[in-house]
Amino acid sequence: MAMFDHPEFWNPKVRAVECINAPAARSVLPYAYKRTELLLAGHSKSEVMAAIKAAIDKEELPALEPGTVRYMMSKGSYLTDEGGHNGPHGC
């Protein structure tokens, strides 16, 4: 779920295990699935952003719930070639 303008967006070495709470599973996970589906289908970043915005406007994606939490608890995470942020942490 790196930001589209992140320099390592397409870095194939990234391994980011996430644990999410119930509100995040209901409201954030559908965005992740949609984004992944579109990217794996070969859509450009701008096409993905437009498709997600359209899905929000059509209420095909849920409103984000308050209290969503993601934890990255894996000791083996690889988040960036820059290092230093690859250990467990909360988002």
Strand order of the largest sheet: 1-2-3
Strand pairing plus helix content: what structural class? mainly alpha
Order of helices and strands: EHHHEE
Q: On the 0-100 scale, what is the average pLDDT? A: 86
Main β-sheet description: 3 strands, antiparallel
Number of helices in the DSSP assignment: 3
3D structure, described in words:
This protein has 3 helices and 3 strands. The protein has a 3-stranded antiparallel sheet. With 91 residues, the protein is mainly α. It has 2 domains: 42 residues, no CATH class; 35 residues, no CATH class. Helix 2 crosses helix 3. The model has no long low-confidence stretch (mean pLDDT 86).
Short description:
This protein is mainly alpha-helical and 91 residues long. The chain folds into 2 domains: 11-24 and 64-91, no CATH class; 29-63, no CATH class.
Secondary-structure map with pairings?
Layout: E1 19-20, H1 22-27, H2 29-40, H3 45-57, E2 70-72, E3 89-90
Antiparallel strand pairs: 1-2, 2-3
Helix pairs in contact: 2-3
What would the keywords be for this entry?
91 residues; 8% strand; mainly alpha; three-stranded antiparallel sheet; 3 helices; 2 domains
